[in-house]
UniProtKB/TrEMBL annotation, chain A:
<keyword id="KW-0997">Cell inner membrane</keyword>
<dbReference type="InterPro" id="IPR003439">
    <property type="entry name" value="ABC_transporter-like_ATP-bd"/>
</dbReference>
<dbReference type="Pfam" id="PF00005">
    <property type="entry name" value="ABC_tran"/>
</dbReference>
<dbReference type="GO" id="GO:0055085">
    <property type="term" value="P:transmembrane transport"/>
</dbReference>
<dbReference type="InterPro" id="IPR027417">
    <property type="entry name" value="P-loop_NTPase"/>
</dbReference>
<dbReference type="Pfam" id="PF08352">
    <property type="entry name" value="oligo_HPY"/>
</dbReference>
<keyword id="KW-0472">Membrane</keyword>
<keyword id="KW-1003">Cell membrane</keyword>
<dbReference type="InterPro" id="IPR050388">
    <property type="entry name" value="ABC_Ni/Peptide_Import"/>
</dbReference>
Automatic annotation (TrEMBL), chain B:
<dbReference type="InterPro" id="IPR003439">
    <property type="entry name" value="ABC_transporter-like_ATP-bd"/>
</dbReference>
<dbReference type="InterPro" id="IPR050319">
    <property type="entry name" value="ABC_transp_ATP-bind"/>
</dbReference>
<feature type="domain" description="ABC transporter">
    <location>
        <begin position="6"/>
        <end position="256"/>
    </location>
</feature>
<dbReference type="InterPro" id="IPR003593">
    <property type="entry name" value="AAA+_ATPase"/>
</dbReference>
<dbReference type="Pfam" id="PF00005">
    <property type="entry name" value="ABC_tran"/>
</dbReference>
<keyword id="KW-0472">Membrane</keyword>
<keyword id="KW-0067">ATP-binding</keyword>
<dbReference type="InterPro" id="IPR027417">
    <property type="entry name" value="P-loop_NTPase"/>
</dbReference>
<keyword id="KW-1003">Cell membrane</keyword>
Length: 274, 269
């Protein structure tokens, strides 16, 4: 088993009330060149799971469990060791491109930052690499001196992507990267991420609540409900023959573009023991 | 001529954006550029478009929450834009609105009973006891309970808050409800419940909906007619069937192709 990332027995609880499990005994593994989607509703623990990989959890939360990255247990690494991994080996993209970019720095500078920090690039080599990255994500390299507010939402998300893939990380974590975008822009960004994943053979951990997006981008799917994994499988298994009653009920809620489906209200009947 | 609850003709709204040194220069942005629509009584017209297409400006313009530059709005046979202040206030009883964000659109310091009953007070309907009964009736109709009247909005989940917003809109028994992205902020499980509730209430109360959304999957399940907007202009309009099965305009096709969940199907087909 050559998993790039393996999480074993992850538990996350508020530091003050350890009996409340926000994430309960989650184990998963990701392979290179594959996209794994974590799907779930708000509060299902999908973002916490992703943040714990990078050790970006709030100090008010307590995490237990092991995280193996390239064979090494990184759950106990100190902050400076983590900083070598973050941005270098693991990239991350967030939902809101405006709040995750610094408004007073040019996008070229921000894309160049991880290259300076991790690869020590300078001067014209740095400039050239930034231009390459902009080109790769479909932004005119001449825009390197623009500020984030001069760009559209989709362009900002492209900048975020350029930053996160700058050092060619082995793992890319994308937390609802298209939720704030218009549908046509969403489709473009999904295509771009898929292309980059294939070209760079990254493992992508993609968090979403949208089953349409899952169908478009996922190889593997993990369904979370109230902090626990209720179902995992390949995208076709999970979408076409879901096993768990929660997955079935959730899929029945999703409106389809053909309008053939009769929408069902969410059914939680299975939660009540017979 | 079909029985229309709402007709809008040639609505125009232009904003001037200040640019240049000291904002002396400026250019015009056409938020609404000659927009016309018709909504048949008891049906749902969906307004679809991306951000900046003018769909929310259209809703606000129709309600006169925003002054329009020109155009005509006929609501229930009356020229809505020509009404004077007091006539407007009483006419507004028949048009209610449901907002996107159930967190931001409910006053956090008011009890749910007061939020829902406020419209009754403003329009001097009934005495205190009658109002109380009407509030309880509508709460139960949207799937909440009589004792919820004493609670505050923060004690409810997102879906429940949206039900409160719906109860507030429907207590005056309006003829037209403008829904501005009413399910966009909700989880998909809750979204289905709210869509089904809106449909059920439409049948029970004979409501007409102007339903603003960017989600074409939702449109398919709620709308009878669709109007596609881009940059303030109406690109295409027609029945749901015709728009989805035979879109005439490129932009509509682009929107339909961008609905997530089709890329794989297209690739394997």
């Amino acid at each position: 088993m050559n998993a790039l990332l393996r999480i074993e027995g992850l538990n996350i609880t508020p530091a003050r009330s350890p009996e409340r499990k926000l994430v309960n005994n989650v184990s998963l593994s990701l392979a290179r060149g594959k996209t794994t989607c974590i799907v779930g509703e708000s509060g299902s623990g999908k973002s916490l799971t992703a943040l714990s990989v990078m050790q970006l959890l709030s100090p008010q939360l307590h995490m237990q469990g092991k995280v193996f990255f390239q064979g090494q247990d990184i759950s106990q690494l100190n902050e400076s060791a983590m900083q070598h991994l973050r941005g270098r080996q693991m990239g991350m993209i967030f939902q809101e491109p405006m709040t995750s970019l610094n408004p007073v720095l040019t996008i070229g500078f921000q894309i160049g930052e991880p290259l300076q920090t991790h690869l020590g690039l300078k001067g014209s080599a740095l400039k050239q690499k930034v231009a390459d990255l902009l080109q790769q994500v479909g932004i005119d390299p001449g825009r390197a001196n623009s500020y984030p507010d001069e760009l559209s939402g989709g362009q900002r998300q492209r900048v975020m992507i350029a930053m996160s893939i700058a050092c060619e990380p082995a793992l890319l974590i994308a937390d609802e990267p298209t939720t704030a975008l218009d549908v046509t822009v969403q489709a473009q960004i999904l295509r771009l991420l898929d292309e980059l994943k294939n070209r760079m053979q990254m493992a992508m951990l993609f968090i979403t609540h949208d089953f349409g997006v899952v169908a478009d981008i996922a190889d593997e799917v993990i369904v979370m409900f109230r902090g626990e994994i209720v179902e995992t499988g390949s995208v076709s298994q999970v979408l076409q023959s879901p096993q768990h009653p929660y997955t079935k009920a959730l899929l029945a809620c999703v409106p389809d573009a053909e309008g053939k489906k009769v929408l069902q209200p969410m059914n939680y009947g299975w939660l009540i023991p017979a | 001529m079909p029985d229309c609850i709402l007709q809008a003709h040639h609505l125009k709204k232009t904003y001037t954006q200040r640019t240049g040194a000291l904002g002396l220069a400026g250019h015009q942005i056409h938020a609404l550029d000659d927009v016309s629509l018709q909504l048949k009584r008891g049906t749902t017209l969906a307004i679809v478009g991306e951000s900046g297409s003018g769909k929310s400006t259209l809703a606000r313009g129709i309600l006169r929450l925003l002054p329009l530059d020109s155009g005509e709005v006929i609501f229930d046979g009356k020229n809505f834009l020509a009404l004077d202040k007091s006539a407007l206030r009483s006419a507004r009883r028949d048009i209610q609105m449901i907002f996107q964000d159930p967190f931001a659109s409910l006053n956090p310091r008011m009890r749910v009973g007061d939020i829902i009953g406020e419209g009754l007070v403003i329009h001097s309907i009934g005495d205190a006891r009658q109002r109380q009964n009407m509030v309880i009736q509508i709460l139960e109709k949207v799937g909440l309970h009589a004792d919820d009247t004493q609670k505050y909005p923060h004690q409810f989940s997102g879906g429940q808050r949206q039900r409160i917003g719906i109860a507030r809109a429907l207590i005056l028994q309006p003829k037209l409800v403008i829904c501005d992205e009413p399910v966009s902020a909700l989880d998909v499980s809750v979204q289905a419940q709210i869509l089904l509730l809106l449909k059920q209430l439409q049948q029970e109360m004979g409501l007409s909906y102007l339903f603003i959304t960017h989600d074409l999957r939702v449109v398919r399940h709620i709308a009878d007619e669709v109007l596609v907007m881009q940059k303030g202009k109406v690109i295409e309009q027609g029945s749901v069937e015709s728009i989805y099965n035979a879109p005439q305009q490129n932009y509509t096709r682009q929107l339909l192709n961008a609905i997530p969940g089709q890329a794989r199907r297209a690739a394997t087909a």
